[in-house]
User: Fold this.
Amino acid sequence: MKKGGIQQSCYMERFSCPYMHDGRIAAVEYMLPSEDDVRTFHEYLSRGYRRIDSLFYRNCCEGCSSCIPIRLAVADFTASRSQKRTLRENEDIEVRVLSVPSVTGEKVRLYETYLRTKHQTDEETADHDPERSLRMIHCGFEHALEMDYYLGDRLIGVGIVDTAKDALSSNYYYYDTAHLSRRLGIYSVMQEIMLALCMKKRYYYLGFYIAETEKMAYKKFFRPNQILSNGRWVSFMNGPSGGRGIRRKSAGCA
Assistant:
């Protein structure tokens, strides 16, 4: 692949789909970005790419298009009553935004417990090295931010978000599953949207929407939203959510 006359290093990987347990084979194209590619990461996000470690990647599965990139126009986001209630019910959580993500023993233990209790049936965790995988999430991209969630002095959640010129991209979030009633996954998305607001980003990318998978289908409830279809971003779920825009500051706002 070439961009601006520069040869880009790309490779393809095929493996059992981690989302569909019906024998489907996933195909992912990885790209080692140049410095110019990193500066224009927002363009890659708009084309459906995501980031792991120092690589950009996109799905290119044959005969399957279930994984659909989804994003919000940040200024248009309207929180539902349920989402606002989740914010209120977690007002005792302190969110700390770090400009340089790090991997610690505490985070490795939290991540390992999260995988064991939340994804215990996933093939991807069968021979998992938690610390190595966590470093691929936290490290390798100079424009990543870390969001740490504390309940008192206890770390109960960690989120990694990737920043781009006009966007914030949700990369990964893991949390203490002893607090499922708090809906920490929903809460983290709300916090990331608020961070995107205060950073004056135009878009917030939620990753993939997968209608057949409950763990990924919830993203449609953050509205109004757009999906990438045939190379174009089109309106998707834009019905009334029963709420209003959010104005609360994120921990990352000055």
